[in-house]
Amino acid sequence: MVLGELELVQRSLEGDLEAWGEIVRRYKEAVFGVALAILRNRADAEDATQEAFIRAYERLHYYDLSRKFSTWLFTVTANVAKNMLRKRRRPDPQPSPGRIPDPAEVVWKEELHHAVKEAVWSLPESYRAPLILRYWHEMDLAEIARVLGLRVGTVKTRLHRGRALVRLRLVEQGVIHDVVQ
Amino acid sequence: MKGWTPIAIAFLIGVLAGAQTPLAPPASPDQVLELLQALPAPPDLKESLAGELTAAMNEQRLTPGVALAFLGEVAELSQAYREDALGILNHALAGGYILDPLLNEALKGLRLGRPWPEVAGVLKLRIRLLDATQQVLQWQGVVLRPLGEAQPLPQRAPQPGPPPEAALVLEIAWAIGDFLVAGGSPADAVSMVEKVEERLLRLRGLLPVELVDHLLAELSPALVRQIVGLALSPERR
Amino acid sequence: MWSSDLEERIREVLAQEAEAARQGLEGLEERVMRAIAQRVARPGLWRRLKERWGLGFSPRWALAGAASLALVLGFALGRLFAPSPLPPSAQAGTLFAVVNPQAHSVAVMGDFSAWEPIPLSDPDGDGIWTAVLDLPPGRYEYAFLVDGKWVGQDPQADEYVRSFGEYASVRYVGTGGGA
Prior knowledge:
By secondary structure, chain B is an all-alpha fold.
């Protein structure tokens, strides 16, 4: 852990809100990414991000200072987001990929980008969350396992299958033509 | 020091309890249905499966974690094999059986790296044995009505568990199936009776005792020959 | 499409999401601090009770409290040696053990894990690999993976079954019946 961060956490434990504000500034995008991976909806993810920082502050005395702070913070975030997902009354909002434009008018690379985006966001949550933690946050398998409460072997399997499902979706849409598994 | 003894014992108990390796967190039915929807497969098949899966999970005939793992493996199959796998699942669900052992059998085969056609062959045999066992037990009066007709589809209130007859059908069919899948002869009814008896006696503490005892009294090579004959008859394949 | 190409595309898509998210997160620090400050301004019931009646417990209650605390701390310490997630209960479990001093990794998989491997551990390096699983009563087929190789016959098993050309072991847990 960076010394500055440890000092910020200790000051926060002593009630220094400004110190916690600095923690929020440093981690808000990463925390948002974890929330979005689970909730898939930007507005909900923003709410979950705010709630996660409040919850983490209230539970800061449970945090073990010898452990990696980001992992602990992301675990709190994942739990907040999962609770929100369970309570969500309206159906899980589908991502809005937009119409795939006419290939004759658009460069193939842009079409592929849209298709990959739609495929990633349409993954089931159990596959989407590990994928996003891996490719957005560059987390290693052990950290993903800790944040999501899974075994490392399960994370490995879900990453592999998540990629396979994305590829299958791209083949379905005719964006790519091979099905190399 | 006297006061420290209970504290030390409490600490030790805590350490031992905490050192258990936990099983994975349970999956939810929603996760299962979500993965099903994401699978590339004919929409009408997925729609039928969604209803059947929901009912099976509600009635606790199928554990969501097992279903999720199975569908995850199915996702990696080729299109033809994937539809075959989902069709087998759909057929098994409609029978009203307890499904965990069937899907676990598939997972075991895939974990061993066996090709899908080999795994499918074993699953189809298991399902034929379940069908035949249920039918023969109905004739014997042990099972009063087909398991698949126990409740109306598709919306059902959560039940405390599967019907007790379902467990009996499962264990009998499974014991016979274990013998056949291991290479035992379908003509060796005596050995199969022994296998069924052994299984029922081992599980007597968990299965409904009256049903088990009734079945043990009726168990005979003739009964087993009826089940196997029905399961392997050409009309069923 | 090669795996590395697909991974690169996924990274690009998510990097774009991260960029788009920045605007929505502006001012979050102030919102969080404001929300926390509002909650701190109304102290909870426990703090109000403490302030009114003060601290202080009888020696007997202090001992009970200390024992409870020791139980929790011990549990937490035990958890440090076990993989996540959190355990469901503290009842007696089912022991799976493999003796293999040459092995580098040992796992058990079976009906209780949808045939996903659960690692066994050998913390003191004596070649005895163990895991204790909290299994509800029932019949469970399982096998071990020793350095990735299937080992289907466990000497501690109640019986063996053979399918797909390999053995698997079977345990009957909490059934009370015997054959």
